[in-house]
Amino acid sequence: MAEDTQGKVITCKAAVAWEPNKPLSIEDVEVAPPQPGEVRIKILYTALCHTDAYTWSGQDPEGLFPCILGHEAAGIVESVGEGVREVQPGDHVIPCYQAECRECKFCKSGKTNLCGKVRAATGVGVMMTDRQSRFSVNGKPIFHFMGTSTFSQYTVVHDVSVAKVDPQAPLDKVCLLGCGVPTGLGAVWNTAKVEPGSNVAIFGLGTVGLAVAEGAKTAGASRIIGIDIDPKKFDVAKNFGVNEFVNPNDHDKPIQQVLVDLTDGGVDYSFECIGKVSVMRAALECCHKGWGTSVIVGVAASGQEISTRPFQLVTGRVWKGTAFGGFKSRTQVPWLVDKYMNKEIKVDEYITHNMTLLEINEAFDLMHEGGCLRCVLSLH
Ligand SMILES: NC(=O)c1ccc[n+]([C@@H]2O[C@H](COP(=O)([O-])OP(=O)(O)OC[C@H]3O[C@@H](n4cnc5c(N)ncnc54)[C@H](O)[C@@H]3O)[C@@H](O)[C@H]2O)c1
Ligand SMILES: N[C@@H](CCC(=O)N[C@@H](CSCO)C(=O)NCC(=O)O)C(=O)O
Ligand SMILES: [Zn+2]
Ligand SMILES: [Zn+2]
User: Fold this and answer.
1) CB 77 near ligand 1, within 6 Å
2) Mean of pLDDT over the chain
3) Is the dihedral of CA 212, 217, 221, 222 positive or negative?
4) If you write DSSP's letter for every residue of 140-163 in order, what string do you get?
5) pLDDT over threshold 90, residue 149
6) Quick one: pLDDT at residue 1?
7) Which residues pair with 93 in a beta bridge?
8) Is the pLDDT of residue 197 over 90?
9) Separation of alpha carbons 288 and 270, rounded Å
10) Which of 237, 260, 323, 367 has CB atoms 3.0–4.6 Å from 242's, for a disulfide?
11) What is the ipTM metric for this complex?
12) Predicted pLDDT of residue 3
């Protein structure tokens, strides 16, 4: 049902990042009505992802300030702009930072989940139609972030960035299907395509690494080796399918050598879920000669570069990366929600904390502690 806010500016609360690393500030933000091809969403729940912290830190070359961060959320469509056909007010939705237009060269290629339709605009914090922001504070424009900006009670996104989901699904849980959980599952299922019986090494046992473990378990991997410098992660990781643990700090040898020794020459698949280029190298080099494949999932800062001896690739190791786990967002996020509703994938188990938008700075502090996987903020 349409709300009486349709066509009007909505003033609501949002957490604004005015400058890198400065505490987020809860502001009264004006959110303009959606223009053609746009959707205004009442965000009910948003989680925090490490990529929000990364951009907030000032290290993201696409980080523009002031902005409204946030990209792992769920809400209800408040109103739609002209020409929007696939969602309507009242629909339950998950905003998708990786769009899916089904028409561009990328979408039609059948080779990637990346979409080119709105990426140039979302990378510079504006909407595609007029290259303007829909957010302002006292008349000053505030940049969008990742085409989602979910740390706001209302946001405006492109219609190609909205997945309509089962209205029965609990939005305080399925908001996680906007980023971290699909990324880990898809890294295994879509990007690496892990086969039954494989040996898998997962570097970093945060939400993304644990979702990789869950994906590897369901793919039938036999050895799932979790590597983390925080021993507190090991207990929780067992519940997600990790069946062996290695703490690099317990060894004098380079971690890639430890893993090669443990696995008779190296693992079949490895996943870097941290964002450190030195670990990305180790993840590649712990792979088995001839076929081992390493997938980069972690996001590393501007200026960071990966390196290895080309001989590592000449001798058959494969280096790959994944964005949103290779999932086609508008098509497959609803499918992931259905899998959650059918109890085929975990989601609740990644949520360690629940807070409100007003507590967002405390939530970010918590995120840097080992005990926190995902913190879900309620916005209303
Ligand atoms: N590619 C994508 O589409 C995508 C999507 C979501 C998140 N990410 C990125 O994935 C990464 C992981 O996200 P997360 O939310 O799980 O993060 P997280 O911080 O919760 O988890 C990282 C884990 O790595 C461990 N760690 C840190 N340094 C280590 C080291 N040297 N060796 C071993 N373990 C180490 C930490 O103890 C922690 O458990 C981030 O870089 C995030 O930006 C990428
Ligand atoms: N602006 C960043 C890009 C960081 C990045 O790689 N983002 C991932 C998603 S992380 C979600 O938590 C991604 O999907 N990238 C593909 C894309 O952005 O199109 C930088 O430049 O470092
Ligand atoms: Zn994310
Ligand atoms: Zn497209």
Assistant:
1) no
2) 97
3) positive
4) EEEB--TTT--SBSEEEEEGGGEE
5) yes
6) 46
7) 75, 164
8) yes
9) 10
10) 237
11) 0.99
12) 54
Give the distance (Å) from ligand 3 centre to CA of residue 180. Answer: 5
In this prediction, residue 369 has a pLDDT band, given cuts at 50, 70 and 90, of confident
Q: What is the pLDDT of residues 167-191, one digit of tens each?
A: 999 999 999 999 999 999 999 999 9
3-state secondary structure of 70: coil
H-run or E-run covering 211: helix 207-218
* Closest alpha carbon to 297 in 188, 139, 160: 188
How confident is the model over 267-278, as a mean pLDDT?
98
Q: Is-contact 225 246, C-beta < 8 A?
A: yes
The two structure tokens encoding residue 82: 């002209």
CB 200, CB 224: distance < 8 Å: yes
Q: How far is CA 251 from CA 148, 248, 259, in A?
A: 42, 6, 11
Residue 153 has pLDDT above 80, yes or no: yes
**Nearest ligand to the C-alpha of residue 106?**
4
β-strand 351-356 against 374-378: which pairing, if any? parallel
Task: Determine the residue of 48, 50, 272, 372 to mutate for testing ligand 1's pocket, defined as the one with the most ligand atoms within 8 A of the Cβ atom.
Answer: 50
